Amino acid sequence: MYTFLPENFTPVKQKPSKELRPMLGAILLGLILFIAAVVAWCYYTVSLRKAERLKTELMDLRADGFVIRNQHGEVVFRLAFRSGSLDLESCSKEGEILSCTRSGRGPLIFFIQTVKPKDTVMCYRVRWEELAAGPAVEHTMFWEDAHWYGGSEMSTQHWPIRLAGYQEPVPYVTSDVYSFRDSFGGILERYWLSSKAAAIKINDSVPFHLGFNATERALFFQARYKDSPYKPPPGQQPFPELSYRVCVGSDVTSIHKYMVRRYFNKPSKIPAENAFRYPIWSTWALYKNDIDQDKLLRFAEKIKKYRFNCSHIEIDDMYTQAYGDFDFDPIKFPNVTEMFARLREDGFKVTLWIHPFVHIDSSNFGVGIER
Q1: CA atoms within 13 A on the CB side of 316
Q2: CA 202-205-206 angle, 5° bins
Q3: Is the pLDDT of residue 355 over 90?
């Protein structure tokens, strides 16, 4: 049997009953919530994996810096990337090395390597290198509530370090603190130690500039070649690199001992016993910088005549023509070989006054500029 419908016949679409509408709405809302929950879970899982990927032992890396905790979970070191933020999507971790390839300014070379030299010490090698010649690399280290020691000689020396005001980063080089009161003195190290058993050592290869902000209780570590006395090694691009090692330990003594063994060589020989037992006679006491060969020999004769003990006789200031020379002034000292022979015969050992300054009139000044 067949059923024939008229050509103009249109089936009537059956509407859902009023009882079904709330149920369909609930199903649709539940589906949306389920999809949202799945998306949120996936995002959380990805974020958790990323957080784990950017986490290394006792250190948490963030886009704008990192913090280091001790074994008790206390934050002992905090540093911020002042010149740019890391693009965390470019970061990955392989073994003990966590590396990133981009920052907000573009491509870079960045890594943190975890090193555990002993059970009581944990260290991190940090390197940030720009791949362009212009921008400086600058990181900010916060003092927090710790006492800090080290750095450079200052005109007013506080122990622990106490700085006032604000100073933009300036070249970390020796200067004359008597003439330039806010400069660094003749003794300086790229090393700082805190009362919370954290220490940082800036690599010697860094074109290092140092600044500070007393309000933020922070030191500025900067690497740059532009408008700087530092020059890149021959044949290398002037890409600034800020590299350093941060170490934390169980106590101040152990971390300082480790850093000293790692970075600061101890004397390789024992000084002569006589240097401790007997006096060192200095020409400065009588002659200041007006010293010459005749005065030196007469000085030695008097010491011997009155039978004083002597470990060394020291030839002090201006036995050269200019600061930075290593040759005797031929006018003041016409026969140095004979002079030393006579002093040795009389039982004297001779030391020379040496300083870190080089005068522009010295022949070695050009050598220093060239190198």
Answers
A1: 14
A2: 60
A3: no
What is the pLDDT confidence band of residue 163, given thresholds at 50, 70 and 90? confident
Cα–chain-centroid distance for residue 326? 32
Q: Does 23 reside within a domain?
A: no
Mean pLDDT for the stretch of residues 50-71: 78
Tell me, yes or no, whether 345 and 248 share the same domain.
no
Residues 256, 280, single domain; the answer is no
Please report the pLDDT score of residue 223 as a whole number.
Answer: 96
Residues 245 and 311 in one domain: no
What are the DSSP calls for 191-210, one per residue? Answer: EEEETTSEEEEE-TTS-EEE
6-23 tens-digit pLDDT = 565 555 555 556 666 676
Domains in the chain: how many in total? 2
Domain boundary among 224, 242, 263: 263
Whether 5 shows a pLDDT value over 60: the answer reads: no
Partners of 188 in beta bridges: 152
Q: For residue 75, what is the domain's CATH number?
A: 2.60.40
Report pLDDT for 6.
Answer: 58
Question: Distance between CA 283 and CA 10 in Å, rounded?
Answer: 124
Residue 286 is part of which domain span? 273-370
Determine the average pLDDT of the residues in 168-194. Answer: 91
Q: Does residue 111 carry a pLDDT above 90?
A: yes
Is residue 172 within 8 A of residue 210, CB to CB? The reply is: yes
Largest CA distance in the chain: 150
Residues 6+ apart with CB under 8 A from 143: 194, 217, 218, 219
Edge to edge, the sheet with strand 280-282 lists 280-282, 312-315, 350-352
Whether 294 is covered by a domain: the verdict is yes
